[in-house]
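=== RUN LOG ===
request id: a7f3
mode: sequence -> structure
chains: 1
length: 252
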Amino acid sequence: MSHQAAFAAALLDPQLPCPDGLCSANGADPASRFSVYRNNVQSSLINALADSYPVVQQLVGEDFFRAMAAVFVQQHPPETPLMSRYGEALPAFLDAFEPAASVPYLADVARLERLRTRAYHAADALPVRPEQITAALADPTALSDLRFKLHPSLHLLDSHYAVVAIWAAHQGDATLTGIDTRHGQHALVLRNGLDVEVFAVEPGASVFLHHLLNDQPLLLSAQNSPPFDLSHTLALLIASNAIVHLKNKESP
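=== RESULT ===
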């Protein structure tokens, strides 16, 4: 292992000794200085995880979360200087983290929070004006091949648990009382202006939106989805400024 690799590994694992060859300009003990630096690095990474996953922390408590995050930090060092990207692997980590098994929906709540972070940092795109969408939907000659390009911030999460209700209950003083956490939900996440919004949509609407994201025509996407309220779904997309381009045979 190179000196740099040993230094990085020791930074994230408090069980490892101070790397050899360190010295201090002011004569202080290198091991003591390194220990302080290591604690600061680990604390910064754990704080970054807490900022990205506030509901996960609320669900398990701060002490449990920070202990869990310390294990995650040891196993998953940062791969990019962008701290908004750090913690992308936490949902998969939680799937296999046995001490959190009593909260089976924890990983999916983490996935929802990660999608909110991705939506917040997604590229901007100008929405199509509602009257343009209405005109396109009313044109029978182009409707069969009409495609919608959706906003870059739009993401979907299909969960076996009530992730939207669980997440929403932790945005205020509400609790999980009355929520059947085992009732699966389909989440739609997108940024509307500067605000990241989270909606629970019908199973058929989620399938429909997946088709649209795969560049399938609007009518074919609706036909290949389980029954759902198409008008309501289109109204939600329009109201959320989620449609950023209309495509048909004549357009690029």
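=== NOTES ===
Residues 123-252 form a domain with the Outer Surface Protein A; domain 3 fold (CATH 3.90.930).
The chain has two domains: 1-103, 123-252.
=== END ===
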